[in-house]
Specification:
Belongs to the complex I subunit 3 family. By secondary structure, the chain is mostly helical. The chain is built from 5 helices and no strands. The longest helix is centred in the last third of the chain and has 31 residues, at 86-116. 0% of the residues are buried.
Length: 117
């Protein structure tokens, strides 16, 4: 028990020393206000919230979300194939991918129409 207490204390002291050393050595200045402001989607946080934003940014974010969900839903399929009917999981997976690819095609075609305007 004493060894655990000493190890915890040494870990705490080392981590505090590294944090204090990093804050002393860092080159932060008070006048660097732009770097301290929050950055979200390239907008100025103090500006008007009614400004339109890039449709290309929106489409890329939407495609990222679609494929992120797709990977999450399709990841357990190979491990489930060993204990269930292979044909039903194959059909379900192919149908799911088909619906996602159809949505991706629709988004890209709508984006191409918007970009051409």
């Amino acid at each position: 028990m004493l060894f655990l207490l000493i190890a915890s204390l040494v870990t705490f002291v080392i981590s505090m020393a590294v944090m204090i050393l990093a804050s002393v050595i860092s080159k932060k200045t008070i006048t660097d206000r732009e770097k301290n402001s929050p950055y979200e989607c390239g907008f100025d946080p103090l500006g008007s919230a009614r400004l339109p934003f890039s449709l290309r940014f929106f489409l890329i974010a939407l495609i990222f979300l679609i494929f992120d969900v797709e990977i999450t839903l399709l990841l357990p399929v190979p491990s489930i194939l060993t204990i269930t009917n292979m044909f039903s999981w194959l059909f379900t997976s192919v149908f799911f991918l088909f619906v996602l690819l159809l949505g991706l095609y629709y988004e890209w075609s709508q984006g191409a129409l918007e970009w051409s305007k």
